[in-house]
Specification:
Radius of gyration: 21 Å
Order of helices and strands: HHHEHHEHEHEHEHEEEHHHEHEEEH
Bound molecules: pyridoxal-5'-phosphate
Number of helices: 14
Largest sheet: 7 strands, mixed
Strand order of the largest sheet: 2-8-7-6-5-3-4
Shape: globular
Length: 399
């Protein structure tokens, strides 16, 4: 770059806010920018379903276009989708939310997270969350002027956050606990008892709980517990969920938040100035997804489960200790037998064997010594990735 180019870069950097400068780029995207330049890579990287959205859902969106539904919707989302969501939450969890003012349709859970933090945080307020956790959690808190407080979780404790671990980290500034179970990146699921203890803690300290349940349908051999459905929790929970993972609809960008009307009102205020509304086509598709029976979701879950069992066994067979994930579509094997850091491991594996995984440290310090592998990819690709990784481990095992 020319001399003047670098001066311009410096100049432009000086315009960027300190808050944004302080946030690291997503450890996932940073790594995957490398991918496009390498041929023959098997990616266990980006966390999205390899299924195409079921046909009847796509068809509903096509019909909606044909009928000319191309305009804004109500800021809160279409009344039909909110009403259907209210029915869905009632029939699944016995939760009643008023579709007029207690449900907001968002642009994915991502927007729901951002709105939540901006609606509840004053500068310096603290939000407690597990480490490792989804990359957007600490960033969304920091961007809203809050302080993320991390609670270490370990493989020995099944990567479950507990009320006992949370309690000593509660201060005068603590506003909320942020949970995301089933977990990205570990696949951990919290038991009903564990959640109930966290719920009691939240009540005792008068805290909000933000519960990102975007993987709620993707559980294997265990039941998902909806936090808001526990006694006394509806009032103090902001439930975030969406269509991306369960219905293979990542590109449609539809999520929702449900909570008490004051909180949803505050979130709607921000949403109406920043986003206006979620895309109408996506909302039409989401309505169809909810109205249909669950057969296709169940088929996808069965399929993920097959791959989950294959990959976990595969890691153990090549000598990697691997916690048994019970939800989402990630495995989180330990790579400590190589003595490498997670970043070194992921980079070397990519260059030497052309398998892409995400270093555990992208999700927090406690991810050191682990890698995240998304198994929402074909069985033959998983098998080949395991072969390549087996070779890699043989070569790099600590002597
Ligand atoms: C835990 C978790 N929450 C939220 C999201 C984002 O979901 P959406 O596509 O609905 O914005 C992801 C995406 O990977 C995720 O893993």
């Amino acid at each position: 770059m020319s001399k003047s180019g670098s001066i311009n870069t410096k100049l432009s950097q000086s315009y960027i806010s300190e808050m944004v400068k302080a946030i690291p780029p997503s450890g996932i995207r940073k790594f995957f920018d490398l991918l496009s330049s390498i041929e023959g890579v098997i990616s266990l990287g980006v966390g999205e379903p390899d299924f195409v959205t079921p046909w009847h859902i796509r068809e509903a969106a096509i019909y909606s276009l044909e009928k000319g539904y191309t305009m804004y919707t109500s800021n809160k989302g279409t009344p039909e989708l909110r009403a259907e969501l209210a029915r869905h939450l009632d029939s699944r969890f016995g939760l009643t939310y008023h579709p007029d003012n207690e449900i907001l349709i968002t642009v994915g859970v991502s927007e729901g997270l951002d709105l939540t933090m901006r609606a509840i945080l004053n500068p310096g307020d603290e939000v407690i969350m597990p480490d490792p956790c989804y990359v957007a959690y600490p960033a969304s808190v920091s961007l809203a002027g809050g302080i993320p407080v991390r609670v270490p979780t370990t493989e020995e404790n099944n990567f479950e956050i507990t009320a006992d671990d949370i309690e000593p980290r509660i201060t005068q500034r603590t506003k909320a606990i942020l949970l995301g179970y089933p977990s990205n990146p570990t696949g951990a699921v919290l038991s009903k008892e564990g959640l109930a203890q966290i719920a009691e803690l939240a009540k005792r300290h008068n805290l909000l709980v933000i519960s990102d349940e975007v993987y709620d349908r993707l559980v294997y051999g265990v039941e998902h517990t909806c936090l808001a459905a526990l006694p006394g929790m509806r009032e103090r929970t902001i439930l975030l969920n969406g269509f991306s993972k369960s219905y293979a609809m990542t590109g449609w960008r539809i999520g929702y938040a449900s909570s008490d009307k004051e909180i949803i009102g505050a979130m709607t205020k921000i949403h109406q100035y920043t986003m206006l509304c979620a895309p109408i086509m996506g909302q039409m598709a989401a309505l169809e997804a909810l109205k249909a029976d669950d057969d296709e979701v169940d088929d996808m879950v069965r399929d993920y489960d097959r791959r989950r069992r294959l990959i976990v066994k595969g890691f153990r067979d090549i000598g990697l200790s691997c916690f048994e994930p019970r939800g989402a579509f990630y495995a989180f094997p330990a790579i400590k037998v190589t003595g490498m850091t997670s970043e070194e491991f992921a980079e070397k594996l990519l260059w030497e064997e052309k398998v892409a995984v995400v270093p555990g440290t992208a999700f927090g310090k406690c991810g050191e010594g682990y890698i995240r592998c998304c198994y929402a990819t074909s069985l033959p690709d998983i098998e080949e990735a395991l072969n390549r990784m087996g070779r890699f481990i043989e070569k790099h095992r600590k002597k």
